[in-house]
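Input record, target 12 of the design panel.
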């Protein structure tokens, strides 16, 4: 079941014509942001949710986000940074949307959108999106396979993209932030640095969007 606890509870509340806030209060989680329950759900709360919703403890726990490795956990956003424009209309919130490598909705295939879109954002070209989609797939394979070499390579791409976009923050934040420009550039770079030396990768990216021109290797990035 790919349903995320927060979305499942929201739909349940909707179905029963009550407020999600009331359900949270009922299970002793009043005042908490519902998305927090998707991670680190205490057994006591899970038991109360199971009782209130007439399901079982195992099912409630299965709606939270497990992480196989520390990196997988780090690349799973605590807050919903993207959502499916189609499925979210129906109140659905799915687990995989929180993963840094999620690009398209696995339920309907639509491209995921940032949850806080900026009105001035320029839509990336099809070429950039194609590469970003490949980058996302490579990141997923690296993390899921716990492959140190692939992870290292992917993160080199991210470091490069951060320099290009002048993003100040961690690579984890760049990959799961609200800025599609930074995120898409990171994913695109993961794809581009796979087989090319950095200066070639920079040139390819510069050719497409013009943003990397100013950031061609200056020697301080050790790729
Ligand atoms: Zn969808």
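The sequence produced for target 12 reads:
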């Amino acid at each position: 079941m790919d349903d995320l606890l927060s979305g499942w509870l929201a739909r349940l509340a909707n179905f029963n014509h009550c407020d999600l806030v009331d359900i949270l209060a009922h299970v002793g989680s009043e005042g908490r942001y519902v998305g927090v329950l998707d991670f680190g759900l205490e057994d006591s709360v899970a038991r109360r949710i199971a009782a209130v919703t007439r399901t079982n403890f195992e099912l409630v726990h299965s709606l939270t986000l497990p992480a196989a490795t520390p990196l997988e956990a780090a690349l799973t956003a605590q807050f919903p940074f993207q959502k499916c424009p189609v499925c979210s209309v129906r109140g659905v919130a799915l687990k995989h949307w929180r993963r840094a490598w999620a690009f398209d909705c696995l339920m309907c295939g639509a491209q995921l959108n940032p949850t806080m879109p900026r009105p001035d954002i320029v839509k990336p070209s099809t070429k950039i999106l194609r590469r970003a989609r490949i980058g996302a797939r490579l990141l997923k394979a690296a993390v899921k396979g716990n492959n140190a070499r692939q992870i290292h390579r992917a993160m080199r791409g991210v470091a490069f993209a951060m320099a290009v976009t002048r993003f100040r923050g961690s690579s984890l934040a760049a990959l799961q932030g609200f800025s599609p420009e930074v995120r898409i550039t990171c994913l695109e770079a993961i794809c581009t640095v796979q087989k090319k030396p950095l200066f070639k990768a920079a040139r390819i990216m510069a050719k497409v969007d013009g943003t990397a021109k100013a950031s061609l290797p200056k020697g301080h990035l050790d790729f």
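The pocket of zinc ion is lined by residues 84, 86-87, 105, 107-108, 110 (CB under 6 Å).
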